[in-house]
């Protein structure tokens, strides 16, 4: 059975895209007596507070129009994925090509389930990462989680 989010997610994605941004994630969960819909957006160059406000207004109006929660109270939260964002999709990995990342894998590579290296590319469902002296190709399906390795001055 489809969740309320499943039925409205394509509409949220279209509304976000219409504002020139991407839907990074959407989650619906209970929080005390009020449910929460957390919408995470992204765009090239980063997300501003004004972007979050525009998306909140557009998505809020859409949800009210579609009576998303059958009149029950909910909170809509709109934010950016932040600097320490998870890498999930081919596009996420391609965006950080040339930078370091840490990947946690479901299948060991060279005896290790955690690899650190420079992302070379990500295409056709495969991440290519330089780990020292070699490049390794890892199916995206084998990546449990990934994060860009951030370095500060």
Describe the structure in your own words.
With 153 residues, the protein is α+β, with helices and mostly antiparallel strands. The protein has 2 domains: 4-79, 2-Layer Sandwich (GMP Synthetase, Chain A, domain 3); 90-148, Ribosome maturation factor RimP, C-terminal domain (SH3 type barrels, Roll). The chain is 25% helix and 42% strand. It has 3 helices and 8 strands; from the N terminus they run αββαβαβββββ. The chain has helices at residues 4-18, 49-65, 90-95; strands spanning 22-31, 34-42, 74-79, 100-109, 112-123, 126-131, 134-139, 143-148. Strands 7-6-5-4-8 form a 5-stranded antiparallel β-sheet. A 3-stranded mixed β-sheet has the order 1-2-3. β2 (34-42), α2 and β3 (74-79) form a beta-alpha-beta unit. α1 (4-18) packs across α2. The chain is elongated, with a radius of gyration of 18 Å. The mean pLDDT is 88.
Keywords:
single chain; 153 residues; alpha+beta; SH3 type barrels; 2 domains; 3-stranded mixed beta sheet; 3 helices; 8 strands; 25% helix; 42% strand
Instruction: Please identify the structural class as seen in this structure.
Output: alpha+beta
Distance between the termini: 49 Å
Major beta-sheet overview: 5 strands, antiparallel
Low-confidence spans: none
Number of domains: 2
Total helical elements: 3
Mean pLDDT: 88
Rg over alpha carbons: 18 Å
Run of helices and strands: HEEHEHEEEEE
Beta-strand proportion: 35-45%
The CATH homologous superfamily of the largest domain corresponds to RimP-like superfamily, N-terminal
């Amino acid at each position: 059975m489809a969740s309320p989010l499943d039925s409205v997610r394509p509409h949220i994605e279209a509304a976000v895209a219409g504002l020139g941004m991407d839907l990074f994630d959407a989650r619906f969960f209970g929080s005390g007596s009020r449910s929460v819909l957390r919408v995470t957006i992204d765009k090239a160059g980063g997300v501003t507070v004004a972007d979050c406000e525009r998306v909140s207004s557009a998505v809020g109006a859409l949800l009210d129009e579609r009576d998303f929660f059958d009149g029950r109270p909910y909170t809509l939260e709109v934010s950016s994925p932040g600097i320490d964002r998870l890498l999930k999709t081919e596009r996420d990995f391609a965006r950080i090509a040339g930078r370091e990342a840490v990947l946690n894998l479901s299948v060991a590579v060279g005896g290790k389930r955690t690899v650190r290296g420079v992302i070379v590319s990500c295409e056709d469902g495969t991440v290519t990462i330089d780990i020292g002296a070699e490049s390794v190709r890892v199916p995206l399906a084998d990546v449990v989680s990934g994060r860009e390795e951030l370095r500060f001055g």
